[in-house]
Design brief:
- The protein is α/β, with parallel strands linked by helices and about 180 residues long.
- Helix content is about 30%, strand content about 20%.
- The strands form two sheets. The chain has a seven-stranded mixed β-sheet with strand order 5-4-1-6-8-7-9, with helices on both faces. Strands 2-3 form a two-stranded antiparallel sheet.
- Strand 7 and strand 8 form a beta hairpin.
- The radius of gyration is 15 Å and the shape is globular.
């Protein structure tokens, strides 16, 4: 398995009021932290974002607009396939404590795996690109619905590892945990 890691950083950050990818935690941006944690787990990295971000990795805009994370996943699958990767591992930029062995845990559980309760943390074989494209064309917008349609299995991991930074209070809590 050759996996490309994709950091999903294309959200609108409505509750935060600013781009979450550029917020700092422990002296580094959430984006830099996600890339640093995911990098050793995969053979390449990319970032799903719909705004300019200064990064050394490919920035992938949603191929289909207004699809939420699924638009980013589709762009990631297209890019991964074009670069010769067999799989895509997706993570959310605003979840700074995801496991540093996430990709290995996903891969050990099968070819199509999602973390139970946290659907953006998943292992996607690139062969599902056309199926995902069709699901979007059919009007599907919810990750779990699409994953059920594509026969994904769920992997149970501790919820604490997937703490999500959505508000300033969440960021303050994450900072307390970090120090």
């Amino acid at each position: 398995m050759r996996a490309l890691g994709l950091v999903l950083a294309g959200g609108q950050s409505r509750r935060m009021g600013t781009d979450k990818a550029l917020l700092t935690l422990g002296g580094e941006t959430l984006l830099a932290r996600a890339l640093r944690r995911l990098g050793p787990q995969v053979e390449g990295l990319a970032i799903s974002a719909n705004m300019p971000i200064n990064a050394e990795y490919p920035i992938l805009a949603d191929e289909v607009a207004d699809q939420g994370p699924l638009g980013g996943v589709l762009a990631g699958l297209v890019h991964a396939k074009s670069q010769g990767f067999s799989h895509l591992v997706t993570v959310a930029v605003d979840t700074p404590f995801f496991p540093d062995d996430l990709a290995a845990r996903l891969a050990a559980s099968g070819p199509r795996v999602v973390v139970r309760g946290h659907p953006v943390f998943a292992l996607w074989p690139v062969v599902v690109e056309n199926d995902l494209r069709q699901a979007l064309a059919d009007g599907e917008r919810k990750l779990f619905h699409v994953m059920a349609r594509l026969n994904f299995t769920e992997l149970a991991l501790p919820d604490a590892a997937f703490f999500n930074v959505n508000t300033r209070d969440d960021l303050a809590q994450a900072e307390r945990w970090f120090t």
